[in-house]
Amino acid sequence: MRYLKGYSLLLLMASLAACSKSSNTTTLVGNWIKRSEFEGVARTSAASFVIDNKAYVGTGYDGTNRLQDFWMYDADQNQWTQMTPFSGPARSNAVGMAMAGKGYVGTGYDGLNKLNDFYEYTPPPVNSWARKADFKGTARYGAVAFSLKDLGYIATGYDGNWLKDNWQYNPVTNTWEQVQSLNSGKRTDASVFVIDNKAYVCMGTANSTAVTDFYSFDGDTKTWTTLNPIANVNDDSFDDAYNFAGSGSASFAMKGKGYIVSGIKGSYSGAVWEYTPGTDRWTQKTDFEGAARTGATGFAVKDRGFVVLGASSSLNLDDMWEFDPNAEYNKND
Amino acid sequence: MQSTTKMTKRNIIIAAGIMVMALAFFAWKTNHHEKNGSDMLAVVVEPFEIRDGWGYRVNVDGHTYIYQDIIPGVPGNRVFRTKENALRVGNVVMEKLTHHKIPSMTQQELISMKITEAE
């Protein structure tokens, strides 16, 4: 059987070589798949970071297994390259961030345990992972991570309880220290985006309730500032339409504004909201064109925003979308 | 008079010919669209030379979905030693894609395929 396999492989090679000899184009092997059944690298709750205009996306959950593989997404070419796998145990709901040209992934859930381990990725040509000092907070999943001035932060999440603590990682000394917690608003599955050395943490749930508290963390003063909640709580009319509190949204910042895309807001929502730091105001933008989803990965590359992967009901999604903030929002669309 | 009739006949033949061709084109286009447009996606593996070795592309519906200029699933910046090795691994990735599996390779899989440059 083994020989037969080898022989048929040889035959295949020979026939392919014969096919390609007439031209200088390369050998091809082909197959077909139904468009509706194409899943690609689909998954939900992946970890991601951006280094040198390339997004690295990996780990996550495919509906059956926690994953360990890691991919690089080239937004210019709209294509994926499989990198060396994450060297820690397979997991979902981990966090990722980049500092000083390296990627970091830690915490998360392996299907049984909440995790507190933490790893550093060095991009090609090294393309390898190294374990670093364990996260000093409690083991958790559904946290947010961000980096400010090449210091990393992991905040909020779920360790059995909803959390609002915040921990700083220094990659030079490979040490963790606790810094100021969010003023209130314990949560898991929140969203974060960074604009001008400030991390904006919003969204998320606690006790099955959408959290509306909204804060920014300043990378210089290392303190949190309370912003207008993302709910209609003010007597003024500016927040009358704020209806997007929820969880599992993708987020990114581009051109000085923050974006919250899709997620679960009561049910699956395709809504997109744009945050302007100067005025502390949110504006609804054109709805997400792809299927409304949760656990998608959002990132910005060269001031272009992208939303990739995620899941809708039981369906894992492989598609990727670029967001155009200038597209007109049409309420009747 | 006779020549006018002849002209008309010729016109009818030409018109009929054009109609047949138009129908044939329309039928071909519809068929072509069904095969390549909405329903089925072509998944094609294409090896290419890179850094004194080989990598592969997996093209889906005419667009490169996976661009593998390094050996997948292993550390470093390695390339396949031969076109055959790149093609064999690309083929397994294609099989995974078309069988609803995440198209990732592990180092163990590569070693069991005797891809010695992945060891």
Please describe the structure with a list of short key phrases separated by commas or semicolons.
heterodimer, A: 333 residues, mainly beta, Neuraminidase, four-stranded antiparallel sheet, 30 strands, globular, disordered N terminus, B: 119 residues, alpha+beta, 2 domains, three-stranded antiparallel sheet, Kelch_1 (chain A)
Distance between the termini of chain B: 88 Å
Shape of chain B: elongated
Indicate the percent of residues in helices of chain B. 40-55%
Total domains of chain A, how many? Answer: 1
Number of helices of chain B: 3
**How many angstroms separate the termini of chain A?**
59 Å
Descriptive overview:
Chain A: InterPro entries: Kelch-typ_b-propeller, Kelch_1. The complex is a heterodimer of chains A (333) and B (119). Chain A contains one helix and 30 strands. By secondary structure, chain A is mainly beta. Chain A is globular. The termini of chain A are far apart. Chain B has 119 residues and is an alpha+beta fold. Helix content of chain B is 50%, strand content 21%. Chain B has helices spanning 2-38, 83-98, 107-112, and strands at 40-50, 53-60, 63-68. Chain B has a three-stranded antiparallel sheet with strand order 1-2-3. In chain B, a hairpin with a 2-residue loop joins strand 1 and strand 2 (53-60). The N and C termini of chain B lie far apart (88 Å). The interface between A and B is large, with 39 and 43 residues.
